[in-house]
Structures are given as structure tokens and as C-alpha cells.
From TrEMBL:
Keywords: Cell membrane, Membrane, Transmembrane, Transmembrane helix. Coiled coil: none annotated. GO terms for biological process: cellular response to starvation. One of its GO terms (cellular component) is plasma membrane. The chain crosses the membrane at residues 6-30, 56-77, 83-101, 132-152, 164-182, 189-209, 229-247, 268-291, 311-333, 359-377, 383-406, 413-430, 442-464. Residues 7-148, 161-312 form the CstA N-terminal domain. Belongs to the peptide transporter carbon starvation (CstA) (TC 2.A.114) family. This is Carbon starvation protein A. It is found in: Cell membrane. It is a multi-pass membrane protein. InterPro entries: CstA, CstA_N.
Length: 477
């Protein structure tokens, strides 16, 4: 059987997962097309703006798909086929479930941001922790999604338009997108960005088939990483946005305020993550197909260089530039909404209304000042902290969704199982990681991770049904 069949099977798995498991998840949640959404009941012309479903879906995809589903899968490809399995299985049973509940619970809680959602389901202490956690993550995301696209744009433009030039341009765009009504810039530019994104994803896929490349020419179980770094927990931290990402929980509420009908949630939130999983699958496949060995991929000079080299080689000069611009569109369209979500999260924290421009500027200016300072920190350091914070937030959001279902007497295991797994992953990672963690041996770290996950599961089953003080009645949501 030719190796490209494995790619086709993976794509088919994502599609089937959306059709079958996505419908199961929506049914368990209880989406109600007759229930008014915040876009209708709280319209303000700034953040609560009803838009057509196709536009909401496209904005959701571009919001969540930063460099993660490109850079992460390229780095994850070093580990071999386990990366592909995590992208497909993780997307269907963890990432898309996470995105669906972070979006639909926001709809039920009147467009609330993730700290409020967590607080209503896990308690006030979790809410306060999540507030700080979410703002820090959003700032890290905003900074990460400035440096990466600026570096790629610098490769396409004359020398005087160096990386710092593009950093300034991107920051200026982010600032405008953060303070202006969501339909003025984001709603108008994203269809254009989406077209470039589709050219990138489809173009790279088609040219891999037509170029005569041997798919997965060195992929083998169990582990092909040149340094034999452990698959668990590193693959599950490295490939975040292509399979499961806590950052998405900060983005889904932006579109929960624009959704016209609860039944659209499956396509927008679950389907948006499946589309991102496909992008991750494409770039993991590129890494395992274009290069002759994992050593060659590791020596390519990092994900940005891999994108530049493979896009030009597979799609030619013009097509390659379009593919690179598609990759640029991903982080740019996540960075702008990261800063916007940070503004809204802080505003919600202090009950600071955002309908007037001066009120928006009062929050936007300080967070952008911090973002500019963080831009001068080493990118690799920022990325490591982003990776851990991202997956830890995903685990917390999944626990919150599980608690919601548990108290509603519905099948909570669709959230509880991935929440338990990701708790083990995050705990093991922070124990193992030598530069930002405790530097333990991998076996010790894994044992601690499993024990921590088991403790959290037992505590959840014992305590999750208790009502949360100050939260809306579970019957109302």
C-alpha cells in the first residue's frame, strides 16, 4: 500500500470525526436553535455583533490557527508517526471538544470569557487563577504571533524592510484591530486572509501528490527524534494548536458573541478545530515527506525556514510566496484577537464597560506597552512558556466543561477523559523540562504526572456536583 494512503486515511478520520463525534458532542451539550444567543440579546455594535455563519466560522478558524498548527507539527514531525496520531485523535476527542464547550458555554453565559466560565464551574479560586493565567497567555500569544510572521515577511521583502520594520507594522495593525468594532477590520479583512490560507493548505497538499514525493519516507514507530526525546509528554506539548490548545478557549468567546443560532456551534467551534487539525496534518506530512531524514529536518534551521524552503520548492516562486503568506495570515489573525481578548478579559475582571473608545484605549495602551517589551525577550524562551501555559489552560477548561456536564447529569466523560490525560501531560512536562521545570528523569516525571491526574479525577468525581456560589443556576444554562 503506498504511503500517501495513510495521509488520505488521516484526512478521512478528521472528516468522519466531525460528522459523527461532533454530532454526539452537540447532542450531549443540548444545543437549542430556539434559544436566543448573546448576539441577539446583548447586541452593542462593538463586540456583540451577529454575523453570517460562514463569516463566523472563518474568523474562528483564523483566530485559533496561529503559527501553532504549522510550527508545532513541523517540530512534532521529528518524533515520527506518533505526531500524526495525536493530530487526528487529539483533534477529534480533545481539541474540538474543548473548542466546542469553550464556545458554547460562553454562549450560555452571555458571552463570558474563559475565567468566568471556569469560575462558574470550578469555583471562585479557579476563576481568579484563570484570570491571571489567561491574560499572561494572551500576552505571550500576542508576542509570539508578532515575531514569527515578521520573520517570514522579512524573507519576502527588500532588505530595508527588516524584521523590526514588520514587527512595528504588525503591532500597529494589532492595536487597531483591538480597539475598533469587530466587524470593521476583522470582519472585513478575514475573508481575504482566509482565501490565502486555503491556497496554502490546498496548494501544499496537491503539490505533494504531483511532485512525486514519497510520503513519510522515513517515518517509523516508535520514535524517530534525532535526540530521542520522549514522546510522552513532549509530543502533546509541542503539537498544541494542531490538536488541542488552551489558547482557543480565549478566542471562542469572541465568536460566541457573534453566533446567531446555537445549532451553528458544531460547525463554528468543533468544525473550526477540525479544519485546523487538517492544517496541522499537512505540515507534519510536509516535514516527514520533503526531508530525507529526521536529522535533515532538524538541520533545516527551524520551522520558519522549513516553511520558506518547502513552499518555494513545492509550489514554485509565485505559489511559494502565496503559501508563505498563508502561513503569515495564521499568526497575524490570531495575534490581533489575542490582544483583543486580553482587553475584554481585563475589562470583565474590573467590570469596565468597553462601548466607548477611551475605555478601550485605557486597557489597550498598557497591554501593548507590555507586549512591546516582551518582544525583545528570546523567542525560544517565550515559546517554551507558551507551550506549557497553553496546554495547562486547555486542561483547566476541559475540567470546567466536565463539571458542567456532571452537574447536568450528562455524559461528562467526553470532557473528563481528555482533561485527565492533559493533566498528566502538563504535570509530567513541568517535572521533566530542564530549563523551565524541575529537570527530573522522565520515568519519575511520568509517574508523578499519572498520580497527579488520578488525584484530580478522584477529587472531581467527589466534588464536582456541589453547587458553585455565585454561579447561574445549572438549570438556566
Amino acid at each position: 500500500m503506498p504511503n500517501y494512503v495513510y495521509f488520505l486515511l488521516a484526512v478521512a478520520g478528521l472528516i468522519l470525526g466531525y460528522i459523527v463525534y461532533g454530532s454526539i458532542v452537540a447532542k450531549i451539550f443540548g444545543a437549542d436553535e430556539n434559544r436566543p444567543t448573546p448576539a441577539k440579546t446583548m447586541a452593542d455594535g462593538v463586540d456583540y455583533v451577529e454575523m453570517p455563519m460562514w463569516k463566523v466560522w472563518l474568523i474562528q478558524l483564523l483566530n485559533i490557527a496561529g503559527v501553532g498548527p504549522v510550527f508545532g507539527p513541523i517540530l512534532g514531525a521529528l518524533y515520527g508517526p506518533s505526531a500524526l496520531l495525536w493530530i487526528v485523535i487529539g483533534t477529534i476527542f480533545a481539541g474540538a471538544v474543548h473548542d466546542y464547550f469553550s464556545g458554547m458555554l460562553s454562549v450560555r453565559y452571555k458571552g463570558a470569557n474563559v475565567p468566568t466560565i471556569v469560575g462558574y464551574n470550578l469555583g471562585n479560586a479557579a476563576k481568579q487563577v484563570m484570570r491571571v493565567f489567561a491574560v499572561i497567555l494572551l500576552l505571550l500569544v500576542g508576542v509570539v504571533f508578532v515575531a514569527a510572521p515578521a520573520g517570514l515577511l522579512a524573507k519576502l521583502t527588500p532588505d530595508y524592510m527588516d524584521q523590526m520594520f514588520w514587527v512595528a507594522v504588525i503591532f500597529a495593525y494589532y492595536f487597531l484591530a483591538t480597539i475598533l468594532p469587530i466587524d470593521k477590520i476583522i470582519g472585513r479583512l478575514y475573508p481575504l486572509f482566509g482565501a490565502v490560507l486555503i491556497i496554502m493548505a490546498v496548494g501544499m497538499t496537491v503539490t505533494m501528490f504531483t511532485s512525486g514525493c514519497e510520503f513519510y519516507n522515513w517515518a517509523a514507530f516508535p520514535n524517530t527524534h534525532p535526540q530521542q526525546l520522549p514522546i510522552f509528554p513532549l509530543v502533546f506539548i509541542t503539537i498544541a494548536c494542531g490538536a488541542l490548545s488552551g489558547f482557543h478557549a480565549t478566542q471562542s468567546p469572541l465568536m460566541s458573541r457573534c453566533l446567531g443560532n446555537e445549532k451553528q456551534g458544531k460547525a463554528v467551534f468543533y468544525g473550526g478545530m477540525v479544519a485546523e487539525g487538517f492544517i496541522g496534518l499537512v505540515w507534519a506530512t510536509v516535514g516527514m515527506t520533503f526531508y530525507t531524514s529526521p536529522e535533515a529536518l532538524a538541520a533545516a534551521g527551524g520551522p520558519a525556514n522549513v516553511v520558506n524552503e518547502t513552499a518555494r520548492a513545492l509550489m514554485g516562486p509565485i505559489g511559494g510566496v502565496l503559501a508563505i503568506l498563508g502561513v503569515v495570515a495564521l499568526p497575524v489573525t490570531s495575534g490581533d484577537t489575542a490582544f483583543r481578548a486580553a482587553r475584554l478579559t481585563i475589562a470583565e475582571m474590573f467590570n469596565f464597560k468597553q462601548s466607548a473608545i477611551p475605555a478601550r484605549l485605557a486597557i489597550a495602551i498598557p497591554i501593548f506597552a507590555i507586549g512591546v517589551v516582551l518582544n525583545f525577550v528570546d523567542f525560544n524562551v517565550i515559546w517554551r512558556y507558551f507551550g506549557f501555559a497553553n496546554q495547562a489552560l486547555a486542561a483547566i477548561m476541559l475540567w470546567a466543561a466536565a463539571a458542567y456536564l456532571y452537574r447536568k447529569h450528562r455524559l461528562h466523560w467526553i470532557c473528563t477523559v481528555p482533561a485527565t490525560f492533559m493533566t498528566a501531560v502538563c504535570t509530567s512536562y513541568i517535572c521533566y523540562e530542564p530549563k523551565m521545570g524541575f529537570g527530573m528523569g522522565i520515568q519519575t516525571a511520568d509517574i508523578i504526572g499519572v498520580i497527579a491526574a488520578a488525584i484530580c479525577l478522584v477529587a472531581f468525581l467527589a466534588l464536582a456536583r456541589k453547587p458553585i456560589a455565585g454561579a447561574p443556576s445549572i438549570d438556566e444554562v
